[in-house]
C-alpha cells in the first residue's frame, strides 16, 4: 500500500484532476456529460479515468439516483475534497502574492489544461 500523501500528489499532479475537482465543486448537479462539455479538450476516456481516481481517493463521490424512471449519476465533492480545495485556495493566493499572478479558476488559467498553444486539438495525458 502506497503512502496516502504520495498517492494524493500523484493523482492531483495529473493534468485534469484539479480542474475537474474545482468544476465539481462549482456545479450543484454535475454529471459526466456536463464535465465533458466544460472541458472541451479532454477525451471521455481520460475524464472517466480521472473521475475514478478522484472517487478512489475519496475526494469526490458518484451518486446514483433515478429521475423519471431513468438512472442518472452525478458527482459531489466530499468533505475531504472540500478541505483540499481550501488548501488549493491558499496555494493560489500565495502564488498570486509571490508572482503577481491573479488568482484564477484552474479551468480559466492560460496555463491550464483547457488551453493549448498553437492547436485546437484535444489533449490527453501520455499513455
Topology:
Elements: H1 4-12, H2 17-26, H3 32-38, H4 44-56, E1 60-67, E2 70-77, H5 79-99
Residue stretches low in confidence (pLDDT < 50, at least 5 long) are: 116-127
Q: How far apart are the first and last residues' alpha carbons, in Å?
A: 23 Å
Shape: globular
Helix proportion range? 40-55%
Structure in words:
With 127 residues, this protein is of the alpha+beta class. It has a domain at 13-99: Arc Repressor Mutant, subunit A (Orthogonal Bundle). Helices cover 47% and strands 13% of the residues. The chain contains 5 helices and 2 strands; from the N terminus they run ααααββα. The chain has helices at residues 4-12, 17-26, 32-38, 44-56, 79-99, and strands at residues 60-67, 70-77. It has a two-stranded antiparallel ribbon. The longest helix has 21 residues, at 79-99. It is globular and about 50 Å long. Mean pLDDT is 79; it is low at 116-127.
Quick summary:
With 127 residues, the chain is an alpha+beta fold. It has 5 helices and 2 strands, in the order H-H-H-H-E-E-H. It has a domain at 13-99: Arc Repressor Mutant, subunit A (Orthogonal Bundle), CATH 1.10.10.
